[in-house]
């Protein structure tokens, strides 16, 4: 079993070569869109990005003024350096953490974000309980990759560090069994820009249309057969 120190070393240079950062820059735009869909028109005093990566989401939240002040914790030192380089005006705290211990006091943030983090985490419930300790509400987003073609999902997502795979039901069960109350849960298809980044202009457009229409017409069948994303707004105890 890996300890926190070994996990930190795995992700230490995760953003150093820019390959993951390029993908996350595009993905961050759709994730911020999901936050706005599940929290329409809402703003907060203090928001904490838990597992902030290289800061793409933070940068967009700053521009959209979701919160008066932003905080961030990140396991990767290369991610921390990338966040610092962005010089985000509303970012007031930035800390390295080991994935399970957040250096902030109880309920010190109004909203915590864990966007495409939980699929990387060895001890999911430990992570979520610690996030709930620090934040009054949580927005958690994960890929829904546990489809009929799970073998392919494991093969394709492994290089990006995914070790947990979810359906809508297993994701909701994880949240409930972590002591969270799920207030809203939504399923999202990938944006056109993300599909085209992965598959090219023409093939990406076809995949975008297929995925979005399938989800509209037959949502239960869609998530059994194709990968999507789920975002959940949760209350913490």
UniProtKB/TrEMBL annotation:
<dbReference type="GO" id="GO:0032259">
    <property type="term" value="P:methylation"/>
</dbReference>
<dbReference type="InterPro" id="IPR029063">
    <property type="entry name" value="SAM-dependent_MTases_sf"/>
</dbReference>
<dbReference type="Pfam" id="PF13489">
    <property type="entry name" value="Methyltransf_23"/>
</dbReference>
<dbReference type="GO" id="GO:0008168">
    <property type="term" value="F:methyltransferase activity"/>
</dbReference>
<keyword id="KW-0489">Methyltransferase</keyword>
<protein>
    <submittedName>
        <fullName>S-adenosyl-L-methionine methylase</fullName>
    </submittedName>
</protein>
<keyword id="KW-0808">Transferase</keyword>
């Amino acid at each position: 079993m890996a300890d926190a120190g070994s996990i930190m070393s795995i992700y230490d240079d995760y953003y150093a070569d820019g390959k993951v950062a390029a993908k996350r820059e595009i993905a961050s735009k759709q994730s911020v869109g999901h936050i706005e869909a599940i929290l329409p028109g809402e703003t907060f005093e203090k928001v904490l990005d838990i597992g902030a990566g290289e800061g793409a989401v933070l940068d967009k939240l700053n521009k959209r003024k979701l919160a008066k002040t932003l905080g961030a914790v990140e396991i990767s030192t290369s991610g921390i350096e990338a966040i610092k380089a962005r010089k985000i005006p509303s970012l007031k705290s930035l800390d390295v953490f080991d994935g399970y211990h957040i250096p902030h006091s109880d309920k010190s943030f109004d909203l915590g974000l864990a966007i495409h983090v939980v699929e990387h985490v060895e001890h999911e419930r430990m992570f979520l309980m610690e996030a709930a300790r620090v934040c009054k509400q949580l927005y958690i987003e994960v890929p829904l990759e546990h489809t009929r073609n799970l073998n392919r999902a494991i093969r394709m997502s492994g290089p990006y560090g995914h070790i947990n795979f979810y359906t809508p039901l297993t994701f909701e069960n994880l949240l409930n069994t972590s002591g969270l109350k799920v207030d809203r849960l939504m399923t999202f298809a990938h944006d056109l820009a993300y599909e085209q980044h992965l598959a090219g202009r023409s093939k990406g457009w076809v995949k975008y249309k297929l995925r979005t229409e399938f989800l509209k017409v037959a949502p239960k069948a869609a998530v059994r057969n194709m990968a999507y994303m789920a975002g959940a707004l949760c209350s913490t105890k």
